[in-house]
Write a structure and sequence with these properties.
By secondary structure, the chain is α/β, with parallel strands linked by helices. It is 37% helix and 18% strand.
Length: 308
């Protein structure tokens, strides 16, 4: 096992190092949950931290794996925390999935396991969806098979976070995946979702992995840390120099690995799903950030010290 790698807090950098760091990136990609807010509360000073980066001339785009919250609700909640961005600077799996489907000129019926918010994004863009069955079944295999087996001309299966996921829906998705020309798309890959600094719950990524194992096929995933998502973002934001992007997040697996995959600089904040002890114990170089901060509020002190 490799020895742990020492990661420096941005506030521990010298004045010269702070200046070099600030001048080394133009665009900020940031997660939201665990960075701006947790499930129950706004993270103190997060809006002020992003305001400092904006004052320094940085372009800010939020990249979240959460498609359950509507885009309108997310933008309003960000504005309430004094973070003003437009829809063009907010990306989530439903939106990146639509962008990909449009890029390949996808035509056909989609079987989807996802939230209503996710489905509405695809419906708005004119895609045809089939979902369900949303029923309570008797414990009968014959009844189960009546719901699972059909000959619908499904051309794509999409799986994201579904509050009413069932074994029947997963079986139906695997049934459609047997067709070799059926496109398989995954959204959120999170195995664990932080509710607070002390609590996490199981995420939809568990079911993406289960589906791949049952179908014996890999999905094209549009949630962090997917390469497919990286390709969408690089093209969308016309990024020529990957190293001049800073990826900020609270999770080593989703956010930091994503930044490393893309060739971005990376910053972990300890305000969400990762503790300092977990950071110190991480030995996978592809999941270790270049820097860390206690929260986005550290950028307020960072800029004060830099401007002395």
């Amino acid at each position: 096992m490799s020895a742990p790698i020492h990661v420096r807090n941005i506030l521990d950098l010298s004045s010269e190092e702070k200046q070099r760091f600030l001048e080394s990136f133009d665009h900020v990609f940031s997660d939201i949950d665990g960075v701006v807010w947790n499930a129950r509360t706004i993270i103190e000073g997060s809006g002020d931290g992003f305001a400092e980066l904006r004052k320094a001339g940085k372009e800010i785009t939020f990249i979240t794996n959460n498609s359950v919250r509507t885009e309108e609700a997310c933008l309003e909640k960000l504005r309430n925390n004094n973070i003003e961005i437009d829809a063009n600077h907010l990306m989530h799996p439903a939106k990146s999935t639509v962008e990909y489907l449009k890029n390949i000129n996808f035509q056909g019926l989609i079987y989807i396991i996802a939230s209503d918010a996710f489905k509405s994004v695809l419906k708005k863009e004119g895609f045809q969806l089939k979902d369900g069955p949303n029923v309570i079944l008797d414990e009968s295999f014959s009844q189960l098979m009546q719901y699972v087996m059909d000959r619908e001309p499904i051309k794509a299966v999409i799986i994201d976070f579904d509050f009413n996921l069932s074994l029947c829906k997963m079986m139906k998705a695997v049934h459609y995946a047997r067709q070799s020309d059926c496109l398989l798309i995954g959204g959120a890959t999170d195995i664990a979702l932080p509710i607070s600094k002390d609590m996490t719950i199981m995420g939809a990524g568990v079911f993406v992995k289960a589906f791949e194992q049952a179908a014996k096929r890999e999905m094209l995933v549009f949630g962090k840390p997917s390469v497919a998502l990286a390709n969408i973002l690089l093209k969308r934001y016309n990024i020529a120099q990957r190293e001049r992007v800073l990826m900020i997040g609270d999770m080593l697996e989703q956010d930091i690995r994503f930044g490393k995959t893309c060739g971005f600089q990376t910053l972990l904040v300890l305000s969400g799903g990762c503790s300092k002890s977990e950071l110190r114990g991480e030995t996978d170089r592809n999941a270790i950030p270049d820097y860390y901060a206690n929260s986005m509020k550290d950028f307020v002190d960072f800029m004060k010290e830099l401007n002395k």
